Amino acid sequence: MTRLSVNINKIATLRNARGGNTPNVVRVAQDAERFGAQGITVHPRPDERHIRYQDVLDLKEVVTAEFNIEGNPDDRFIELVKRVKPDQVTLVPDAPDAITSNAGWNTLHHADHLRRLVDTFKSDGIRVSIFVDADERMVEGAKATGADRIELYTEPYAAHFYDNREHAVASFVQAARVANELGIGLNAGHDLNLDNLRYFAQHIPGLLEVSIGHALISDALYFGLENTIQMYLRELSNLELHSGH
Question: Choosing from 33, 50, 66, 70, which is the catalytic residue?
């Protein structure tokens, strides 16, 4: 079964809008685990507009599920990850002013840089995932860096899902097949939600983990966090049983 990692950035966004410590990021992470999340993801950015670097240090003390830190590997990010030693680091080529992640790495152009980063993190026993577009060449390039996994950037899938889901998923299926052939692990994330998650997971061979934040936290406003996490887990379970629907 594909694992669900809950990205809690939006909890920090809400907290920061008012100041103080409500909602409490650490408490929400603990609750998410208790409600069934198999991982917790955070994405600290240089301006700390949502997750703060101190949050990451605080979370390290309490998170018992898989802890995934994602972000642009500038010097401060590298230092933080090496200090925290999460289960996984996901390297994302965000510009400092990016509202949200909007593209994967060009793993060919940045091959040497990525290879050095992979070596740096793996030397501390941290699994390394590289954020890539659904492009066979980028998957091959990621494998060449020595990374353990890739994370497929799924916004293009989500954007075209309602128009033509078969076409929307096609490049991701092919990228996944290449990843499987190369023996590199496969994660996915960005704009996956209760409408499009099951279809994606059904069609992507070897999908190990999805990281979901914005949609899941938004759904929790309507359904409650515990119920929402269970709803997402149900979309990822019994896929063969529901494959005809």
Answer: 70
Query: Mean pLDDT over residues 176-204, rounded?
Result: 98
List the catalytic residue out of 33, 151, 190, 203.
Answer: 190
pLDDT in tens, 10-58: 999 999 999 999 999 999 999 999 999 999 999 999 999 999 999 999 9
Catalytic residue at 235?
no
AA identity, residue 158: A
At 103-157, the pLDDT tens digits run 899 999 999 999 999 999 999 999 999 999 999 999 999 999 999 999 999 999 9
In angstroms, the CA 33 to CA 37 distance is 5
The active-site residue, picked from 43, 66, 151, 235, is 43
Closest CA to 6 of 245, 212, 172: 212
Is residue 43 part of the annotated active site? The answer reads yes
- For residues 91 and 131, is the Cβ–Cβ distance under 8 A? yes
Residues 6+ apart with CB under 8 A from 184: 139, 142, 143, 147, 148, 149, 150
Q: How far apart are CA 202 and CA 242, in angstroms?
A: 9
